[in-house]
């Protein structure tokens, strides 16, 4: 039986992955590229075929709804999480003026997935796990 993750674990890993990426790129984690990617990924986690209009509606919501009652119920596989994150980053890039996701977008996904498995992982650990390069090389891509 595959390991299942909760929505809360996924949200935390994604938020921490975005923050790690933003810090290494010397950007604000509240920059549009990150906030849209987070909203898109979490929307697509729940509704894999969601259109951009639904992502936009979630993003524009003045105050988030209360957390669902099953927020701490393990129900998402790693493949589902990976697909939602990758598709969310792709969708956000497309609708924010970039023709395709860039290295920073890809790092966000890798960092979030690494942090899902090891919430204490740092930049060096993400690089070691996901890239065959030195941290300084990966940092230069961001």
Question: What can you tell me about this protein's structure?
Answer:
The chain is mostly helical. Helix content is 64%, strand content 3%. It has helices at 7-25, 32-46, 52-60, 78-95, 103-117, 123-130, 135-141; strands at 4-5, 76-77. A two-stranded antiparallel ribbon has the order 1-2. The longest helix has 19 residues, at 7-25. The model has no long low-confidence stretch (mean pLDDT 91).
Task: Give the beta-strand count.
Answer: 2
| Spatial strand order of the main sheet | 1-2
Helix content: 55-70%
Number of helices: 7
The rounded Rg comes to 15 Å
Sequence of secondary-structure elements: EHHHEHHHH
Quick structural overview:
The chain contains seven helices and two strands, in the order E-H-H-H-E-H-H-H-H. With 142 residues, it is an all-alpha fold.
Chart the SSEs and their pairings.
Elements: E1 4-5, H1 7-25, H2 32-46, H3 52-60, E2 76-77, H4 78-95, H5 103-117, H6 123-130, H7 135-141
Antiparallel strand pairs: 1-2
Helix pairs in contact: 1-5, 2-3, 2-4, 4-5, 5-6
Task: Note the main attributes of this structure.
142 residues; mainly alpha; two-stranded antiparallel sheet; 7 helices; 2 strands; 3% strand; globular
């Amino acid at each position: 039986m595959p390991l299942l993750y909760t929505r809360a674990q996924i949200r935390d890993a994604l938020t921490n992955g975005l923050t790690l990426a933003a810090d290494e790129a010397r950007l604000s984690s509240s920059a549009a590229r990150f906030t849209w990617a987070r909203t898109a990924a979490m929307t697509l986690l729940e509704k894999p075929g969601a259109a951009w209009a639904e992502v936009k509606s979630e993003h524009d919501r003045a105050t988030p709804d209360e957390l669902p009652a099953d927020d701490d119920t393990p129900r998402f596989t790693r493949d589902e999480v990976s697909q939602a994150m990758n598709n969310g980053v792709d969708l956000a890039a497309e609708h924010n003026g970039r023709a395709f996701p860039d290295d920073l977008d890809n790092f966000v996904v890798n960092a979030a997935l690494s942090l899902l498995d090891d919430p204490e992982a740092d930049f060096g650990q993400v690089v070691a796990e996901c890239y065959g390069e030195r941290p300084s090389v990966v940092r230069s891509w961001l």
